[in-house]
Known about the structure:
By secondary structure, this protein is an alpha+beta fold. It has helices at 122-125, 128-142, 174-181, 186-205, 260-264, 272-287, 297-306, 312-315, 321-330, 342-354, 404-437; strands at 2-5, 12-15, 23-25, 32-34, 43-44, 55-60, 62-63, 84-86, 89-97, 101-108, 114-120, 152-158, 161-167, 171-173, 208-209, 218-221, 227-229, 236-237, 386-389, 395-398. It has three domains: 2-63, no CATH class; 68-168, Phosphorylase Kinase, domain 1, CATH 3.30.200.20; 170-355, Transferase(Phosphotransferase) domain 1 (Transferase(Phosphotransferase), domain 1, Orthogonal Bundle), CATH 1.10.510.
Amino acid sequence: MIQFLCSNCGAPLRVPPEKAGSTGKCPRCGRHVEAPLESGSSLGNQSSGTASKSRDDRATFEAANTGRDDLDFLAPPQASDEIGRLGNYRILKILGSGGMGIVFQAEDLKLRRQVALKVMKKSMAQSSINRSRFMREAMTAASIEHDHIVPIYAIDEDRGVPYLAMKLLVGESLEDRLNRETKLPPAEVIRIGKEIAEGLAAAHEKGLVHRDIKPANIWLEEGKGRVKIVDFGLAAWTESNDVRLTQENFLVGTPMYMSPEQASGDIPLDHRTDLFSLGSVMYRMCTGTLPFKGKTTLNVLASLATKKPKSPRERNPEVPQALSGLIMQLLQKRPDDRPRNAKQVVRALEEIENAPPEEEEIIEDIQIEVPEPEPEPVPPPSSTTKLRPVRGGRRRRTTPGRTSAEDELARKVIKFAIFSGVCVFLLLAFLVVKSIFFKAKPDENPLPNPPSIGTP
């Protein structure tokens, strides 16, 4: 079988040698991907043969970890709705399966509540290193109490396998949502990214590094889509000398989301490796694609070590410049060039979230525009007047029912009437004064009365 990685979501896939070079659908994301030629595969068995490059839309490639898991470690079921028993739990159904363990939906027989039960596979539990790693996951996650980290209820071992019980989450993984929607609106990217960073900050304060931040390990709760970080199976105490908790030369993490220092294993890991993975997750949320990808693990690691991805804004112009710049800073190859800690990322995302919308950018040639002069202020009309439009776009205040010529004539008549009134007033005043001061005096020597006619 030829094993390779989906170039869209990073899922491990496999095909028989006769399908090398063919195109089919990824069972996880549903998108078409091309299987590598045998010479380009670094995983699985290799044999000679020539493959057709034809595309069969009906073909779906096989996931590398498919196949029925060995469940013989379960005790026999005691009810029709269960598939077995383990410790104090009724096993109801399989929720998922990974490289190390199986996740069941189960019921706590004492508390009568539904839980998610993560159980190490029996084949993996035969290794003491693997059991130690699995139990470290439980202790790591149980030591953190934070709203964005799934809580651990119990840790135990039964029938030769260790297991842990955690809260049964309702909703979907970020991986499932991205497979359905490809990319998310910038506001949603900021919200999800900030909540992931808040959860990581809580873990980093306790000296813990997750080391496998990817969309499949980010759970979005039903309703508002609140983030819960799950699967601390690869987490390690930064103060421990046994950082890898795996056999020598075993690659820990998911290649398409891991940091360069995690891929090389040359330097001790610290919390900044999680920040790089967060940048990869946010990059995919913004653009619908991975920053570093390839058909094989070696291709991905080569791209991770040598290539610089296009900025999210180049791939999606709707991404704000500040958000694009932050993501590119998270994806810096040197840890010292990334943000110092997850709290700093939270603050940066809050500033981007609260920032005013960006000014509209001019895409076409730049044109210098002369601003129009400001219009002269016009006094507001009174209740007895109205504005009448005139030629040229200006408006003049007039009395209702009058034209401009009539207004001019009325003003002249009023002026003439006032002038005439003043003149009449002055004339009357003059006559009154004259009658008082210039009245005729009586004669001091009046003539004798004339004789009457007929008087002797």
